[in-house]
Amino acid sequence: MAQGPKTPDDQKNVQLIFFGCSDDTFICAGGQGVYIDHDNCASGEPIWMRVRAGDEALLVSGTYCPGESRGWHVGVTPDTDAPDLYDVRMPDWPISIRPCPETPYSPMLVIEAPAGVMVELIGVPDSE
After folding, report:
1. CA nearest 60: which of 102, 104, 105, 91?
2. Contacts with 50 (C-beta within 8 Å, 6 or more apart), sequence order
3. What is the pTM of this model?
4. Domain residues of the chain, as ranges?
5. Do 91 and 6 form a contact (C-beta atoms < 8 A)?
6. CA 90, 28, 52: angle at the middle one, nearest 5?
7. Which residues lie below 8 Å from residue 22, measured CB to CB, with a gap of 6+?
8. Segment 59-118, tens digit of pLDDT
9. How many Å apart are CA 88 and CA 95, to the nearest integer?
10. Neighbour count for residue 58 (Cβ, 10 Å)
């Protein structure tokens, strides 16, 4: 079935928010009903999520850092299968890190992704 022209609402960005809770749960919440809440049982292992829109993708990680930090490390890297490091490019999506009002011990990573974005938990045996 053919789709009609896109309306301004179809072209809006989707805001995705990533942050850690307690010492074991990493959350992604955002538009389009996106919600992932993964508990790694305080293992100290990073929790990874893939953010994909069209041919562009990012990997977002959250790791609880015990010890002196006692907080979360939240980061982002390009997700690509480019054979050469110099061919790797970050998608041109606005990304920011802010204090998280819900969990002050965790930064909040905010991605303004294109409409139609998909988020998936990766690297967990029952998620693949």
Report:
1. 91
2. 57, 58, 59, 60, 79, 118, 119, 120, 122
3. 0.84
4. 22-127
5. no
6. 35
7. none
8. 999 999 877 778 899 999 999 877 777 888 899 999 999 999 999 889 999 999 999 999
9. 17
10. 23
